[in-house]
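Sample intake sheet
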Amino acid sequence: MWNDFRLTNSVHNAFAGVRNLLQDNFPNNTIPRVPGCTGFYMPDHDFWQDNLQRFPSDHQQVGAAFTVQRILPLPKAIRDALIERYFDEDVVDEAKNDRENIACLVRVYLGENESNPFYDSLLNFPLRLNMIEDLMIEDLKLDIEALADEMAIALAVIHFQAEIDAMDTEFVLGSARATPAEMRTPDLREDNEPHSVEELEFQQRLIHLWVLDFDKAKRIIPALENIDHLVAAFLGNDPYYPRPDVDRDLWIRFRNTYTKASCAILKRKRAVEAAMSLPQLFLDAVEAKIEEHKDWDPEENIVFR
C-alpha cells in the first residue's frame, strides 16, 4: 500500500511536470489524469479515531490507509447505455436502479476483442476494442484513435518522466469536473462561416482517461538493459494497450504517439543520444515477443498447482 501511495504521487507529479509540453506536442488530444494521494495513515494515527465510524459497517477495521482524489463515475446516460447494450433485457430496469452500478469506471481494453459481451454489473466494466466500435457512434462518441493516443502518451510519461515500469497499471474512463483552464473550445478562423458546433464531452474533459493502481509497479532506469523488464510489464498487464496482432493500424498509431511523446520528454531532459532510441527499441521488443508467442494457446498451457 505504501508503494502504491508513493508511486501514484510520483506519476501524478510527473504528469504535472510535462503537461504543457505534451499539450503543445499533441494539441488535439487531452492528457490523461492520475489521481493525487493526499494522506497516508498508519494504524496508530488519529485519523482512525476521527473517521472509523464513517466507513461501512463491514469495513470498520483499523489498518494502514491512504486518501486519494476521487474519480467520479461515468454519467448516468452512459451507464444506462452500457446496461441497455450489454445486459440481458430482463434485468435492464433493475440494473439501472441498482446503486452498486453507480460506481462505474470503465476499463479500456484496446488489445482484446470481446466474443460474448453480456454482463450483469458495471463495477470495473471491461470495454473491449470491438465493444468501443459498437458504441462509438451510438452512445459514448468515443474516438478509438484518441484513446490509443492518450494511452500512449500516458505510458511515455510513466516510463521516461516518472521512470516507473507501469506493472499492472490500470487505464479507466471516469469523469471529473472541468475547470476553466482545462476547457477546450473550438478555435475558429476569421473566414469561418457561422455553423453549428456540437459540444464534445470527451474533449471538454468531462470524461477522462485516468491512470491508477501502482501497487505492483517499481522504479526503473530507462536503459537498454531494462528493455526486457518493460516488455514483461507491458505484456503481463491486462489488455489495455493496442497490440499488433489484434489491430495493426491501431498499434501503429499507438507506436507513433508513444515514440513522439517519449522523445519529447527525453529531449526536454537533455538525454544522451543513445537514450533517444529507447522508445523504438522497447516497441520493437514488444512486437518481437508477440511474434515469438503467436502460436501460444493459453488453454493448452494451464498449470494447476
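Comment: Residues 2-25 form the longest helix (24 residues). The radius of gyration is 21 Å.
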